[in-house]
Amino acid sequence: MKRFGTLLSFLGIAVLTLLITMLLILMVGSNVDQAFSGFLSGIFGSFYSASEVLVKATPLILTGLGVAVGSRSGFINIGAEGQLYMGAIAVTGIAFWMHDLPAIVMIPLVILGGFVFGGVWSVIPGFLKARFGISEVITTLMFNYIALGIVGILVRTWLKDPSSALPMSAFLPDAATLPIILSSTRLHAGLLVALISVVIIWLLVWKTPAGYEMRAVGLNPRACMCSGISVYKNILRSSLISGGLAGIAGVCEVTGLHHKLIEGISPGYGYIAIIVALLGKNHPIGVVISALGIAALQVGSLGMQRMAGVPTSISSIIMGVVVLLILARKRIFRRLLTDE
């Protein structure tokens, strides 16, 4: 009965989301049937459209996974956006500095560099939280603006392409670019990097003593202190992994899609990652599913705009509605969930 009530509650959320979406479409003066037709054709209308869902899901999986790892240890990472940009800086600097390396060496090196840069950018707020009790919500958020500012300086100075008047770097060497895994699409090997990361994090967090300690610290840090588990060490460890995964997302965006460093390399993936982790219940498999769902929503909204003139901003409203409904699920459907 409990599982049946839970299933009905999520079905109710889906119905409410659908009704709210229809209301929003009517409010902007568009045809509902045409809008939903555009939404579906935007996702499934062609092989390229379907591949775009995976392209957008790749950075969401990595950043969402990073936020989820941090949350499991009580480290609330709002800074995945900045950590993504630090990973983008790392890959660009390494690729130009060691441009003679072959791809078989360069690709693992830039991924490692992105992990280190993103991880260090996250460890600083982690240290401030563990050592001085300073809220990581504030520090990680502020570090986002610092990281974006650093990128803005670099693409106008040391990393600027001398042949272009625009603030961006030169194109990366071929050895530092990820291969396309489906011809005639933009789907690159970054998706494989993301899926491998999902498996590694699942094994680390759920199948190792270190992962058990991180989860324990997130559940009850005081009990961990009494039992000899270091809260300080585990917060640092989780913040390093959290930021490192977001840094890898930056590496994949540069090496897989843009092939150069630009200021607007992320349309807010680090912030959407918070929603991805929340909807995925901070579990690797849940993160993959929610990342695919949000990516499909974003791609489908472009189809709605083309066919029915529906603003793409509606996708952001829908994401917010879904989050609010899930957070309020037990109160809205309390009669169905009385046994939870």
TrEMBL record:
Its main location: membrane. It is found in: Cell membrane. Keywords: Cell membrane, Membrane, Transmembrane, Transmembrane helix. GO terms for cellular component: plasma membrane. One of its GO terms (molecular function) is transmembrane transporter activity. InterPro entries: ABC_transp_permease. It is a multi-pass membrane protein. The chain crosses the membrane at residues 7-27, 47-70, 82-99, 105-128, 140-159, 187-206, 269-296, 308-328. This is ABC transporter permease. The lineage of its organism: Bacteria, Bacillati, Bacillota, Clostridia, Eubacteriales.
